[in-house]
Amino acid sequence: MVALLTRVLLTLLPAVLRVAANTELPHPVNPFVSPSTDPYNPLRYTPNNALTAVAVALYLLTAVVMTYFMYRRGARFMAAMVIGAYTMSLGLSMRFGLHSQPESKGIYILEYLLVVLSPCAFIASDYVLLGRLSQSLGMGEHLLISPNRITRVFIASDVATFLIQAAGASISISGSTSGDLKRLQAGSHIFLAGLALQAASFIVFMAIFLLFLYRVRKCAPQVWNPSPSPPWWKHWRMLSVALGISCVGILIRSAYRTIELSEGFEGRLGTSEGFFYGLDTLPLFLAIVVYVPFWPSGYIKSNAVLEKQHDLESSTTKPPNSPQTMTLFEEEREK
Length: 335
Fold this sequence. Notes:
Number of helices: 12
Shape: elongated
Strand content: under 5%
Helix content: over 70%
Radius of gyration: 22 Å
Distance between the termini: 30 Å
Number of strands: 0
Largest sheet: none
């Protein structure tokens, strides 16, 4: 996913540079006087540097902390989310450039691509996390789709919708470069279709996740409420709460972007900085920062522990969360 994101951005870069170099039309003498009526200002407002600084700092700090956790505590399957946080902070930092050059199409397109495509990496990590959690609990049979397959199915869906969005963005850029309004609108519609399909796929994923929790609670009470019960912050259900919060944040952002694109780039949602931060930047930030206090490696057994667990279950009749198995997990966490 990360390599794909990088490849798409590099592919679109020449078109971005062509747009940035397009100076055929005259610009207002002072673009800061009335940005809301400036046809050359793609945002229709001048970004606030203070808000940009806060947003960039929060995403960058979260990315750095998660990088540290990933290498010191494990859970490298969260790498897509970590790198997505870096690219998101880079995209937001482009708004500093738009503050001083509000009419720059090149800066705007780079900012837009990074901000709208980076969340695909967040979604990919959530997809992987559910499969890992079910395997760690030994509750894969309660997933509507097997743990290994659910990761493949939804990652494939994420990649497909990502490519559709990237294709739409590429066509929009091409239309903007050539001044072809129909091509620009077609690209926007393709991008909207990709975003809507991604949202639909994510809703299905959330339904599977909620059904999984219901089945575990109903069919495996010893796993839902293990004995002895760990402190609440060490209980695996806290990781499921974090995953749920992450899903809600991503869903809010998806709904916002879908409505924004259906209104058009000059609609109310697309031309309001308040809506951008309140319905896009903030929900996505909550979707990733929630994992900082509840880092997955503290709840999900590593592959080494799962292999030992499998060997133990093969020679005994102990359940997956028996004291012997949990001892192996605790030993792994202390390393």
